[in-house]
């Protein structure tokens, strides 16, 4: 066992049940920066929290695991406390798998399964890959929610463990995407095309932020890209809200959307209509 694992083994914590809206701060101060992290064996991983009973993160009733680490910086992020690994808890993968085993009979009975979200799941491909493999061996439906920015890290074997990919396409216009996330759109589109070539079931998510992502041309660009993809089962339009604003303040990070209103029902209806007019199933 490497020295780092010996040291960390003495600092093992319990996987934190809670809510995606709970603030996590500095729980693993010695963790590497997300961009320097090498998730080789996946024996341990950094976890924000897990929720049970969600009906929003895939079909049926879900156990949703939120992992730490994200390379994007979305202006509207509800969980900026998942950007850095150091804010999560370092957990042995076996502990997650054991806990999953306890929930598996109920999840199977409720036609649900496991969804891993974040943060960005593909920062920790070895850790999350082991959990997904275990979930499949327990007979569970499996899903990840991802921005797709690190899609190239997911091997075909990794993707084979997935029944569903919930793919956030945060904008269709590359400049808007960069303004919204500080990253490039192209890797996400490449990942979407790869999933389409595999015929992997996908739900696309689009976060609707007034004044940032709501431009009709920006929405039309997402719709035009998605409409021909036969593997996309639905487009979900997520209206922006201010629920995560308190986290930015608590973490001392400048929040630029203080004056942005929630997306109105009329705006949501217009955008859903744009997707439907383009030939997408949208809700
Ligand atoms: S990809 Fe998700 S976790 Fe990462 S910054 Fe964007 S909204 Fe936040």
How does this model look, in words?
- By secondary structure, the chain is of the alpha/beta class.
- The protein has a domain of 193 residues: Aldolase class I (TIM Barrel, Alpha-Beta Barrel).
- Helix content is 33%, strand content 18%.
- It has an eight-stranded mixed sheet.
- Strand 7, helix 7 and strand 8 form a beta-alpha-beta unit.
- Helix 2 runs parallel beside helix 3 and helix 7 runs parallel beside helix 9.
- The longest helix is centred in the middle third of the chain and has 17 residues.
- The N terminus is likely disordered.
- The chain binds iron/sulfur cluster.
- Iron/sulfur cluster binds next to loops.
Produce the secondary structure layout.
Blueprint: H1 3-9, E1 44-54, E2 62-67, E3 89-92, H2 93-109, E4 113-117, H3 125-137, E5 141-146, H4 156-160, E6 164-168, H5 174-181, H6 186-198, E7 202-208, H7 216-226, E8 232-239, H8 245-251, H9 265-277
- Strand tally: 8
Strand order of the largest sheet: 3-1-2-4-5-6-7-8
Question: What is the level 1 CATH name of one domain?
Answer: Alpha Beta
Q: What characterizes the major β-sheet?
A: 8 strands, mixed
What's the helix count? 9
SSE string: HEEEHEHEHEHHEHEHH
Shape: globular
């Amino acid at each position: 066992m490497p020295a780092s694992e010996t040291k960390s083994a003495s600092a093992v914590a319990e996987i934190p049940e809670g809510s995606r809206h709970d603030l996590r701060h500095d729980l693993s101060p010695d963790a590497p920066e997300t961009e320097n992290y090498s998730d080789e064996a996946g024996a341990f991983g950094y976890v924000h929290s897990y929720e049970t009973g969600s009906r929003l993160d895939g079909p049926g009733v879900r156990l949703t695991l939120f992992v730490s680490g994200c390379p994007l910086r979305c202006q509207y992020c509800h969980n900026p406390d998942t950007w850095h690994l150091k804010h999560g808890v370092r957990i042995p993968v076996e502990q997650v798998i054991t806990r999953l085993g306890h929930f598996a009979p109920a999840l199977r009975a409720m036609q649900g399964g496991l969804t891993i979200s974040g943060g960005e799941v593909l920062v920790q491909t070895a850790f999350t890959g082991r959990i997904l493999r275990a979930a499949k061996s327990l007979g569970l439906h499996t899903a990840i929610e991802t921005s797709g920015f690190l899609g190239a890290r997911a091997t075909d074997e990794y993707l084979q463990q997935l029944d569903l990919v919930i793919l956030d396409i945060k904008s269709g216009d590359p400049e808007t995407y960069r303004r919204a996330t500080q990253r490039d759109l192209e890797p996400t589109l490449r990942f979407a095309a790869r999933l389409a070539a595999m015929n992997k079931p996908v739900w696309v998510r689009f976060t609707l932020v007034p004044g940032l992502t709501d431009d009709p041309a920006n929405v039309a660009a997402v719709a035009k890209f998605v409409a021909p993809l036969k593997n996309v089962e639905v487009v979900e339009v997520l209206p922006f809200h201010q629920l995560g604003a308190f986290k930015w303040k608590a973490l001392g990070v400048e929040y630029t959307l203080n004056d942005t209103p929630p997306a109105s029902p009329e705006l949501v209806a217009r955008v859903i209509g744009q997707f439907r007019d383009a030939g997408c199933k949208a809700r």
